[in-house]
Amino acid sequence: MADRLIHDAAAVLSIGDELILGQTLDTNSAWLSARLTELGVRIVEHATVDDDCEAIASALRRLAGRARLVIATGGLGPTIDDLTRRALADALGEGLVEDGQMLSAIRLYFAARGTEMPENNRLQALRPESASALGNAQGTAPGLHARLEIDGASADCFCLPGPPNEMRPMFEQFVMPRLNPPAGGVIRTRVIGTFGLPEATIAERLGELMARLRNPVIGTTASGGTVSCRIRFTGAAEEADEAIAQAERAVREAVSPYDFGADDETLASATLKELRRAGERLVVAESCTGGGLGALLTDVPGSSDVFCGGWITYADAMKLGALGVDKSTLRARGAVSEEVAIAMARGALRAAEEAGAPAQHALAITGVAGPGGGTKDKPAGTVWIARASDRGGEIEVDARRFLFPGERRAVRLRSALTAMAMLRLALIGAGPVKLLGQQG
Amino acid sequence: MADRLIHDAAAVLSIGDELILGQTLDTNSAWLSARLTELGVRIVEHATVDDDCEAIASALRRLAGRARLVIATGGLGPTIDDLTRRALADALGEGLVEDGQMLSAIRLYFAARGTEMPENNRLQALRPESASALGNAQGTAPGLHARLEIDGASADCFCLPGPPNEMRPMFEQFVMPRLNPPAGGVIRTRVIGTFGLPEATIAERLGELMARLRNPVIGTTASGGTVSCRIRFTGAAEEADEAIAQAERAVREAVSPYDFGADDETLASATLKELRRAGERLVVAESCTGGGLGALLTDVPGSSDVFCGGWITYADAMKLGALGVDKSTLRARGAVSEEVAIAMARGALRAAEEAGAPAQHALAITGVAGPGGGTKDKPAGTVWIARASDRGGEIEVDARRFLFPGERRAVRLRSALTAMAMLRLALIGAGPVKLLGQQG
């Protein structure tokens, strides 16, 4: 029953032992799905198989029976465990031939880097007889395109290399131009990001907006303190913009002021935007996050106009020496305390001023990320976050204690995000807004 | 043909619009696969479907026809788009009942946090009649276990919540005890991590070790400069340890000194281990990575004994003020230059000393992460990395220019990893070893 060809639909196949063994995360399926959805193509399935010629060939044929577009990634490398070329040939019932043009392109790739082509890479110039090779500007693995006929229907099958920096431009160059707009209209999506409320509370605020049969349909997903409200419209192209805009307004009204942005906007880019709007700058003082807050902020291109930098004060000596935290305070209250968090934030404002990179805001984080280091009073997951803001006059300080669930990585990420949320809410003048995990 | 039940095999199903739309990365399939592989269970498939009751039910039945163990994650939340409970009931041909014990557990969860259960969460106490509910210590969503009969064969079907911090302990508690050791022996894996050589060169060095029909079978996977050599043994339990150890020795000999560790060891943990062995400490000075190097190092629990912290000198003023980089040098050579990288590293050693947190090594990174900011001489991806080491006597300096391919995120990650690799190779006394992306 599931083997009917679905028009205007696509299936994504990921190939690799490392995926099926769980050693590598599959980011390609998500990326391809996001791009295809934007382009109005419905995804019917993701599947993953290992580096086994039969498994790949049989998955290609099964998926070609379900969707008119199949995109496979991986298994095009230069080593003998890269079997996608042969599997596609088997699925087509053909042999492999060497593609002279592709061989030259691979040789050129190496020549441009001042080395000769290793003999292994010659494998990458092979293609099934009826397939065409797709050039790869970022690497040595050409992609492949072929038409697979299954039960009289025919599917476009694209095999692209696994490394995302090679796969992505090849998708844009070779796959995108072949997509027809869907017959029944378009699928349009928008994601409203919120931070600081539990998913169930967001759902209660959204209420009837989440009813399953509405169009746009609205759903939520939670991940480490961020709850995304996903809006998906299916219908006539000319109604899409207005329907999405209306739904976005309703969602934002329901979840305000926890909504920080739409689609690609991250809490970091939203925070930087508010700093830019205010014409103010930020420095950070990080203990348990070890640079993670700075890394998230600088993930956003062009952040240097409002983010000066900061201090990673992982060892206590750095807290004392670089930020001037008082030694007796640190001894008496411990590194994870309100007093030390505030001293770090104030110290960062002062040190930035002294360094000639003055900032209006400092965010300081000190906590027990775990798994070790916790005590009864300060269990793993306990984090103090302080914001110090100097906008002329007295320095305004906001320090809060949090208890974050989960593993070390989750606690660290949550800490960095929560610090940004504290600053963003202050910048938009939201007043005292409690954030998820906040104690007292 | 693919619908035969495979004994001692498992299939993994991920459920969620956010996955099929590509808005969220599926980490659960990889984690479950890694755990199951370690436990000797063969994975036959990963599949992903959206929050659609029919799609979930039909995937559950299809996979139960292929493997005796099906693990599904997601769709157990408290909102109306969480449909796994109903889909499992449909797949079983049963109705849903409220589980009194689970309802009490959910109420208790909220009571322990000082709040009342939102009415939405009551949904989570529902289960198919013949299913049993599985307690969740980390959250409100109970899991479900049922036996699905397909064509006379029967599969154990576990539905676990999507959030990893809830799913993982529930897997250990409820699924693991039900796995029988495989009849034909065990699957044992080891991954040797290497950093700094291209995948094809690693493959050439491995040569015949990678032949497809050997046991253990050895394969490679590349990701951002790291090439993992995966060793997988299938056979009698008593032969596994020796076979794996032998293969590991052969792999390491072939790829030395680029091999940094096995299995869970990361380049960061390997670097920290060498520092610990030498009894030395590290500080960092980060420009284009913005804290990412510190964040990677402190991802490793217990890093504070050898990692003091550092300076995020994103704005040029911070390079001058906090690290004492010379203004005229910065003007004349630009922030992305050998001179500034060296001055940052030397400055970090000096500033750490002054702060009372002396270190023997400093790593400095300054580059053009892109997408903007590149010039003809210094295109996006150009990064200078300097190591300054003070082990008494003159300070030893090693500065290198790199050109890293890919997007901003890839360049930043590669920069941080390459800095660690430079230090690790120096600490093990590997001599001058060229690293991937190094210019000249």
What does this structure look like?
The structure is a homodimer of 440-residue chains. The first copy, chain A, has helices spanning 17-20, 28-38, 53-64, 84-92, 100-112, 164-175, 199-206, 237-255, 267-278, 292-298, 316-323, 327-333, 338-355, 408-427, and strands at 6-15, 42-49, 67-73, 96-98, 126-128, 132-134, 143-150, 153-160, 186-195, 217-223, 226-235, 259-262, 282-286, 307-313, 361-367, 382-389, 396-403. Chain A has 440 residues and is of the alpha/beta class. Chain A has a six-stranded mixed sheet with strand order 2-1-3-8-7-6, sandwiched between helices. A five-stranded mixed sheet of chain A has the order 14-13-15-16-17, sandwiched between helices. A four-stranded antiparallel sheet of chain A has the order 10-11-9-12. Residues 1-7 of chain A have low confidence and may be disordered. Chains A and B meet through α1, α2, β2, α7 and β10 of A and α1, α2, β2, α7 and β10 of B.
Structural class of chain A: alpha/beta
State the assembly state of the protein chains: homodimer
> Approximately how much beta-strand content do the residues of chain A carry?
25-35%
Number of strands of chain A: 17
| Chain pair sharing the greatest interface | A-B, 114 and 113 residues
Span of the ends, CA to CA of chain A: 55 Å
What does the main sheet of chain A amount to? 6 strands, mixed
Helix content of chain A: 25-40%
Q: How large is the count of helical segments of chain A?
A: 14
